[in-house]
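User: Okay, second chain of the day. Same drill as before: sequence in, structure tokens out.
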Amino acid sequence: MPSPDLARRAVVTGMGAVTPIGNDVETYWSNLLAGTPGGGPITTFDTTGHDVKIAAEVKDFDPLLTMDRKMVRRMSRFIHFGVAAATEAVNHSGLDFEALSPEERDRAAVVINTGGGGMEQVINGADAIRDRGPGQVSPFAIPALSGSMAAAQVSMKYGITGPVITQVAACASGVIAYQDALRLIASGECDIVLAGGSEAPLLAMAFAALSNMTALSKRNDDPEGASRPFDRTRDGFVFGEGAGVFVVESAEHALKRGAPILAEIVGAALTSDAYHISAPEPTGRGASMAMTKALRQAGLAPNEIDHIVAHGTSTPLNDVTETRAIKRAFGDYAYKLPISSPKSMVGHTLGAAGALSAIAAVGAIRDGWVAPTINYHEPDPDCDLDYVPNVKRQVPVEAAMINGFGFGGQNAVAVFKRFEV
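Assistant: Same drill. Structure tokens below.
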């Protein structure tokens, strides 16, 4: 079981989100439960000549609500998302950083991960050099493209002077943030960690490359139905964008200030497939090992997990491999587990995916509902578990697991549990 030392237990007290189906946590969560699709035609660039013309874009987002105009102009979109999600999470938690002493801010941290950071800055800079000359490249291009800058901007906004961390681990990045939050709290180094992921990768170059890799769905005539994890007719993922951030505190710190505790992070693990730059190892051994290690750290038996928020990308290889990995880790109990993929609605948000999955896990613990996997119509004999098809389900959830698996064979798993003193 988790340590009885309340100063070393990591609890969630606030959440924030920017997503293709809602730019705050409660809108995102209600739309997730309703099975609201986030896919649509690409509006961020001219798709002429592209095989893929659909994406899950964030809509009606105004960065000026949380950043001043000068910083909005100088920073990349993934930074805008990260700051907005962190701001909501802090407000939700009731934390007042201005009231904290310098010593208390020294014991606060930020961990906001990403897969690609501000990639658009490289493209914009290359265009500027070609069209107008090197003197026209923005002097802010380097900080704007830096993957660490979402975390850095959040630290500056709140005067956080403890560790500021960004880990880049492709599609596993968002899940890793919660492992780092758990480690920082459990080690006694920090009392507060703002943890999550942010991504804004919807660039013409990225679409072209992933399309040529055959990773993306080409159902251009059905953007809302294109992301169909675990369905037999899946043909690739729908590219998405967004951010999710949690406020994580030591239980002692949260209880002392009377904060509402949403859940506890009780276990997390990382493993590597050591197999291929993009394909998962076919047996699911590495992913399964991450699940097993996370359970072990959490002090939970497999049958004490009530829900899995799957990586579930809607690609032919990932979904069958994740199914195999869940069976390896959970045995026969795998067939009794409700498993959902938010990517059926928000698409694949890369470094933000784990953060959006974490919100789904904590929402299930808080409300007793698990979100559906939409667009599930034709069962795949190789994906034969319970994927909560198309309609939300009322399930008492005491503990939930989230999975995140990235290019290069990076496997990350975290376990959340209802908090009990």
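DSSP finds 14 helices and 14 strands in the chain.

User: Thanks, on to the next one.
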